[in-house]
UniProtKB/TrEMBL annotation:
Residues 1-248 form the NR LBD domain. SMART domains: HOLI. Pfam families: Hormone_recep. This is NR LBD domain-containing protein. Keywords: Receptor, Transcription, Transcription regulation. The lineage of its organism: Eukaryota, Metazoa, Ecdysozoa, Nematoda, Chromadorea. InterPro entries: C.elegans_Orphan_NR (IPR051152), NHR-like_dom_sf (IPR035500), Nucl_hrmn_rcpt_lig-bd (IPR000536). It comes from Acrobeloides nanus.
Amino acid sequence: MTPLQQLQHAFAKFLDQIQPRGDSIIISEYADKLEIFKFQEEYVIKLAEAVMHCEPFAVLPFEDKWLFFRHFWAAFYSIERIYSSIEYFGYNLDDSRHLVTSKFAVDSNTKWTISEIPIEQSMKFVELIQPMEINLIENLAKPLKRLQVTRFEIVYLLAEMLWSVHEVKGISDYAKAIRDDILEQISSELHNFYIFDLKLYNYAARHARLIRLIPISENQVQLYKDYLAMAKISNLFEYNLYESELVK
């Protein structure tokens, strides 16, 4: 199998681990932000296991693997959560339901709390990050729905984001050489998918809309880091994952 095919296979298994089974999902009237954070910590481990099925990535030196992974996972998390919501609930732009964990989803009527802090602080934190939530819906969720993105394209984005480390410092020359070969190969496979599977012979506009999602998702990570820093400074709430070495 090619590296992209390996990632397709691994991604399917990954989704089986993190998506709800059957019709078991609950649309929560009240939701605890701490459940997201717990899910993210498990998510990171499962995603790391998934990308290790890509042989060219698996054979990289540990330091390269670390730099690659920390560069991409948080941005891809936003894309994957929206895609999984689309798989489960469909492409309807007016449907606000969004998968949060493998056990529950939320919609526009859900009231958020943080169980470990006083309700007043919790409400202030939720209000603080509301612009980020709006940005996620308007600039990432709706474009993905309008595009009617396919699973193949999501895995292509995974591969593109994983291997596009041109601005990451400390990458070895060996990893750079592999990176360039992989990026060229996955572009060729996406071309074949558009031509032979979708019968889409003029796909430049669709590809541009797809690629545009990468910087948007990366900006979402930066917004999250900024809002969490503001919450920490304001003594509202503290969550250290996005301040750790695990997020670039």
